[in-house]
Specification:
This protein has 345 residues and is of the alpha/beta class. The chain contains nine helices and five strands. The protein starts with a helix and ends in a 6-residue tail after the last helix.
Length: 345
Amino acid sequence: MMLRSALAAAALATAALVAAITTATATAPATASAPAHAAPVADLDYVALGDSYSAGSFVRPWTDDGCGRSEQNYPRQTARRLKLRLTDATCSAAEIRAGVLAPQSELKGPPSVPPPGGWAAKPAQVTALSAGTDLVTLGIGGNSIGFADIVETCVKRGLVAFGMGRPCASHYTRGEAASRLDARFTALEADFATALKDIRSRAPHAKVAVVGYPAVVDDRAGCDFGAWHQLGTVAKGDMPWLDTLERRLNTVLREQARRGGAVYVDTYASSTGHGVCAAAGQRWMYGIKDSLTGPGGQSDPPSQTCRSIPGRGEACTVLHPNLRGATHQADLVTRALTAMGAVRR
């Protein structure tokens, strides 16, 4: 009973944390590959739009403005490699409407503990675009389907079931919960199409790449129930369904990119085997509570909720790419932008 109580407290704390920190997440074959002779082209204006997976949240060092943009995120690594002039408008917790198309007032960090009075709202990311923009990347959508809420539900239901069966998948594949999830995907399709049209309107000469989500839970074999550097109390039986959910999300992004005349950058296929259940040296994804990666000694003082989770990790990273993952994203985005013919107009 004491173990059950401890797990219950940890799961409830994690559920609250997951709901408070956005994530987002998964598939399709890569659309572009770099020609061997391609060379970086300087003096191009590149604008990066997106959520925490594009911002590189929890990879040191990051900005302290509530968006948690890492100096090692894929937009910044790509810009350095190709000598592009970058405007990085990405922000943790961004959604398509409240973030990309409209101002964002709900900010999650890191830092996970906001300053007194909170952070200032961020303008709509599309305001960073102009007629002079040459290249745009857009990585968004996970928050729009409520991925954080879904993981929270999986943590709670996995605990109640002591890790047995498929309690979360059963919940989301029938009845009202299934209908709500389908409605979110329908709204995502419409909102994403609107975002691409707005980008085209504001930056009519830009070449646009839609960046998909990397594999998070593609292989459950290495995950242990109650391991907070992995998935905590999510049942193993629910992990294949979470992977299916990611792949469904990426399928929408790929199709919207095709319809909107953008290139789709698949970061899922080549990251399989490197998700949260992989061995430490092969993992490109943080767990729920994990040790930080990236250069420097920057830390994220934990919130009260984070401190209550019985994991050894130094921060509540909640399923985001680590430094290896961010570099993998950068490799593919660099290749895609080069193949798109990053040349002067």
